[in-house]
Design brief:
mainly alpha; 2 strands; elongated; two-stranded antiparallel ribbon
Length: about 120
Amino acid sequence: MALTRAVTVDVLLGITALGTLFTAVAIWVVRDFYERLHYMSIPATVSIAALAAAVLVLKGFSAPSAKTVLTVAIVIVMNPILTHATARAARVHEKGQWMPTTDENVEIIDTGRIVKNSK
């Protein structure tokens, strides 16, 4: 039983490490800021969930496990919110405003109807 638990923890920690390593390489290779934001979701979801599962397997249901699960839940819920806020702030910094400009060919949804943003 102890060997199975140790192997399970090692596999889960390996998933955590590989997910984080993949993210680091992807962020290093990809040059677009907005694409980099997408790659940050891997450690904030898959890796952290595997880490929490490893703690649960190792410690069982205990106070450290409860704290880990609570922390993971907060990170998983906050990740898309913070990613959106970061992307929005970057766009405002880059373009000076959040809304699409006239030179961008973007569909704008306005009060339930789709309006084409023409040049």
